[in-house]
Amino acid sequence: MRTAAHFGCSLTETMERLCQAESGLTVVYKQHVSAVEMTGQKITAVLARDVITGVRYRYQGTCFVDATGDAWLAHLSGAKYRIGREARHQHEEAFAPETADLLTMSGCITNSVFLDTGAPVEWQAPDWVPRLPAGRAFGRNIERIGPSWWTEAPNDFDDIYDAELSRDELFRVMLAYFHYLKNLWEEKERAASYVFGRMPYFDAKRESRRMVGDYILTQSDCVEGRRFEDVIAHSGWPIDLHHPRGIYSGHEGPFFSNSHVPLVSIPYRCLYSVNIENLFASGRNLSVSHVALGTTRLQSTIAAVGQAVGTAAAMCVQRGMLPRALGQEHITDLQQRLLRDDAFLFDLENQDPTDLARTAEVCASSVAHDEVWWPNLGIPGELLPLDRSRATFLARGVEEEIPALYLLLTNHTAEPLPVTIHVRLQADPDGFTTEEDTAVATATVAPGEHWTCFPMSIKTSLRYLWVWLEETPGLSWRVQKFPPLDWTRSERQTSAVKFRNIRWESHCIALVEPDIRPANCSTQNVINGYSRIRDHERYAWVSASEEGLPQWLELDWRQKHTVSTIHLTFDSDMNNPALPIQVPALPETLVTAYTIEGFDGENWHTLAEVSGNYLRKRVHRFASQTLAKVRITIHGSGNGKTARLFEVRAYS
Ligand SMILES: Cc1cc2nc3c(=O)[nH]c(=O)nc-3n(C[C@H](O)[C@H](O)[C@H](O)COP(=O)(O)OP(=O)(O)OC[C@H]3O[C@@H](n4cnc5c(N)ncnc54)[C@H](O)[C@@H]3O)c2cc1C
C-alpha cells in the first residue's frame, strides 16, 4: 500500500510497474489458457487465446506454474486435483463434514455501495429477490450500514462452470440484505435515508479446484503448528471457513469454522503436482485440504507461496531439474535463497556461505539498554479506571481449553482488592451482546500494576469470547493499543445500557502468562541469522534513544574483501499485530535516511546515500571495492530518536 502511495497510483498500476522493473519477466494480458501440449507426464506448451481478438498463442517451456485459482492447467494436463470438502475421516479433520461433498466457499461482492441521501426513501426489493428472516432471527450483529463480507450465497453453485449463475445469486443476496436493512431490521430507521448505490459485476470466487501435490496440508498440520523440513512459507490466519448456508446461516453465525492457529508451515511438497512432472501450483489452488485452505487462501500467504514457487521454478530452469528433484536435492538452497530475498521462514537462519557479513566483527556508536520485549501483546496504552463496567472482545479458536486469563490491572489503593471477571462466548464478531456467563472468576490485585491471573476452566465452543469487569473503585485496567485482529474493547455506564464498542483497541489481556523481558539490542543481532525479532535474545540492533541521531554501525573484517553488494533489513514494525488493519504512514521503528561507507584501509568512500526510505529491505549494488570495513550511518528514522537494524549482508 505504501508502495502504491509512493508511486502515486493504484495498486494494479504499482504491480505493473514492479513487473516492468523485473528483468526477464514478460507479462501478457487478456489471454485465456485453454489447452496444453504434453509429452508423457510433462507439459511441453500451453495454448492461450486472446479473449478480445481471438488470436491463439503457444508458450513452450520446461516448467509451468498453475496460478489460475481454478487450477485450469492441472485440469487440462490431467494433474490430480480435488474439489469440495473432504470427509472427516480422510484426514482426521474435526472441522470437515461427516461425508465428502462438492461444496466450496461462496464468494461475495463486498464493494457494493449503499448511499445516505439524508432524507427518508422507501425501497422494496423486487419479487425475484429472496426475503431474509426479520429482526434478530437473521442472526447478524449489524453496526455499520453497508455490505459485509458475509453477504454470501449458499455454496450450491458451481463457481467454475456456472460462474454467471453464481454471480447472479450474489446480486440477489446483496439486494435481499439491503431490503432487510430498509424493511425488516429492528433498527431499520437507521437505514431510512439510504439508497442502493451500486454493485460490482463479477463473481469473486473463494474456492474451486485444489491441485494434489506430493503432500496435502491438513487441519492437524495447521492447528498443531507442525514444522516441516521443507518449509517455504507460513500462514497465520485462522482456519476461516465460511458457513455453507452463507447469509442464511442465522444464529449459527457467518463461519463454519474460524479457529485460531499457531504459525502454520507450508511444505514445498504442496507446491507441485503429484503426477505431472513439471507442474507447480500457486495461490488458492495449492495442495491443501478444504479445511487447510481456510488459512492458506489469504493474500499475504499466497504472496509468500508465489515467491517460493517463482524462485523454485527459476532454479529448476537454471539447473535443468524438475520440481520434485529440486525439493529432494536442493531444498536448503531454495530456502537460503528465499531468506536472502527476505522471505519469512521462522525456524531457519541465514547460513549463506557467501555472505561476508557473517565473518565480520560488529560495533556501533551506541546500544539501547532499556527496551522491553513485549511479545505479541500489542502496545500498552492508557490506564482506564473501573469507574464503570469495562469489557474486551477476543477472537480465539473453537474447541479450545482456556485454563486462565491474565489481565493487566492497577490497584491504586494501599490494600489488596478483590475483583471478579465474567467470561462469555459469542459466535458473531463485533458483539458484546450475549447475556450468559460461561465462567466467572475472582482474583485479588495487590497494590500497584500487575498481570493478575484469573484461573478458570473454559472449553470454548464458539469463535469469540468476551470478558467484562464490574465497576470496582480503586482499580484500573490498562488499554492495549494495536491489539490482534478482531479484538476490541467496550464500556457501559450502567447495566441499563448496551456495551458501546470501541474499535482498534482492547484491554491488556493474555491467555498465557506474559513473558515480558529486557530485549538484547546488541550489534551482534545484525549477523545473528535472523532478519526479524525472534525473542528477547534474538532481537535487533537498537541505538540508545537518549543519544539521538545520527548513529552508526560498523562491520570490521580485519582483512580486505571484495564487496559489491550490501543488503540492509530495517524494522518496519512487522511484529505489530495490528498491522494488517492499521498501516501507519511511517512506522516509528523504520530507518528513513542513511549512508553506507566503505573503508579501503586508508580512506572512507561513500557507497550509498538514501533519504525518504519507506522499505524494510534495501539492496545496494555498486562497482566492486576492496574493503576492510563497512559503516552504516543512520540519519533519520520514524521516531527521529533511534536507529534499528535487523540484518546486514555483504557479498562480493
Ligand atoms: C470476496 C472475497 C473476499 C476476500 N477477502 C480477503 C481478505 O480480506 N484478505 C485476504 O487476504 N484474502 C481475502 N480473500 C481471499 C484471497 O483474495 C484469494 O484467496 C486470493 O485472491 C486468491 O488468489 P489466486 O491468485 O490464487 O486466485 P485468483 O484471485 O482467483 O486469481 C486467478 C487469476 O487467474 C486468472 N485465470 C483463471 N483461469 C485462467 C485461464 N484459464 N487462463 C489465464 N488466466 C486465468 C483469473 O482471471 C485470475 O486473474 C477474499 C476472497 C474473496 C473471493
Please characterize this protein's 3D structure:
The protein has 4 domains: 154 residues, no CATH class; 86 residues, no CATH class; 153 residues, Galactose-binding domain-like (Jelly Rolls, Sandwich), CATH 2.60.120.260; 132 residues, Jelly Rolls. It has 652 residues and is α+β, with helices and mostly antiparallel strands. α8 packs across α9. It has 9 helices and 34 strands. Strands 14, 29, 30, 31, 32, 33 and 34 form a 7-stranded antiparallel β-sheet that branches. Strands 16, 18, 21, 23, 26 and 27 form a 6-stranded antiparallel β-sheet that branches. A hairpin with a 4-residue loop joins β31 and β32. Helix content is 15%, strand content 33%. The mean pLDDT is 92. The site of flavin-adenine dinucleotide has 19 residues, from β1 and α8.
List key phrases describing it.
alpha+beta; Jelly Rolls; 7-stranded antiparallel sheet; 15% helix; 652 residues
Short account of what is shown:
The protein is an alpha+beta fold and 652 residues long. Strand 31 (591-599) and strand 32 form a beta hairpin. Flavin-adenine dinucleotide binds at residues 32-33, 67-70, 72, 107-108, 110, 204-206, 283-284, 297-299, 302.
For the biggest sheet, the summary is: 7 strands, antiparallel
Helical residue percent?
10-25%
Assembly state (oligomeric): single chain
Structural class: alpha+beta
Would you tell me the overall average pLDDT?
A: 92
Bound molecules: flavin-adenine dinucleotide
The overall number of domains is: 4
Counted by DSSP, the helix tally is: 9
Strand portion: 25-35%
Task: Indicate the radius of gyration in whole angstroms.
Answer: 27 Å
Uncertain runs are none
The shape, in one word, is globular
Distance between the termini: 33 Å
* Number of E strands: 34
